[in-house]
Amino acid sequence: MPGWRWLRLAAGMPSFVRTGQIGDGREAACAAYVESHAARGDIADVLATIDRFAYQEAMLVNIGDEKGRLLDAAVRRAAPTLALELGTYCGYSALRIAAAAPAAQVVSVEFSAANAEVARRIWAHAGVDDRVSCVVGTIGDGGTTLDALARDHGVRPGAVDLVFIDHDKKAYLSDLRAILDRGWLHAGTIVVADNVRFPGAPDYRTFMREQQGALFDTVEHKTHVEYQSLLPDLVLESQYLAGR
């Protein structure tokens, strides 16, 4: 990736932490690019168009194509009926889940209403907005979002087959614990977490190592930060063992 693209991304990180967007309009521009360049109703073409935008126009902080293939494989192993995502951003990873699991309902949680709107535009263009939805909120808001997931989206004990985590790295473990406390997982549920090495979620990684063979069976996939090949990253894929 050219250095100027890294500099633009780095300059936007304070805005991203506050608002969920880089601050230069790239997220809305991505939705417009998809609507102008991708074939309507073609999930694969929409995904390829988002990747092209990220490589050629402005880098995006979604899981990307390299790590996305790891997510695809995990989704196929989970064969979900209901998938829960933490961190929608522009809707890319939810779209990958929907593509790999054509029968699944995908519910994504996103704290930025602006990102939710971008994602909904992209899902509508891809033709999956009937089975991919976004709840604006956070798992750590005292139960409001958890209650909304249960009340409005059928997220009930033992119902979640796949969880994908790619939001605030400091919230990975606390949000997973909140989901566990609700009893939403079942034996065999697969939990996938992105960016565990960079920017890093060390407490989450430590927890999965401590729970290896007890609560979870975890595989650490060595890979790279999205849309480049220099910075190493880790994607953790953890199968829930409780009840076995």
Automatic annotation (TrEMBL):
GO molecular function, one term: O-methyltransferase activity
Domain of life, source organism: Bacteria
Keywords: Methyltransferase, S-adenosyl-L-methionine, Transferase
One Pfam family from the record: Methyltransf_3
SUPFAM superfamilies per the UniProt record, alphabetical: S-adenosyl-L-methionine-dependent methyltransferases
GO terms under biological process: methylation
InterPro entries per record: SAM-dependent_MTases_sf, SAM_O-MeTrfase
PANTHER family listed in its UniProt record: CATECHOL O-METHYLTRANSFERASE 1-RELATED
Name of protein: Methyltransferase
Record organism: Mycolicibacterium duvalii
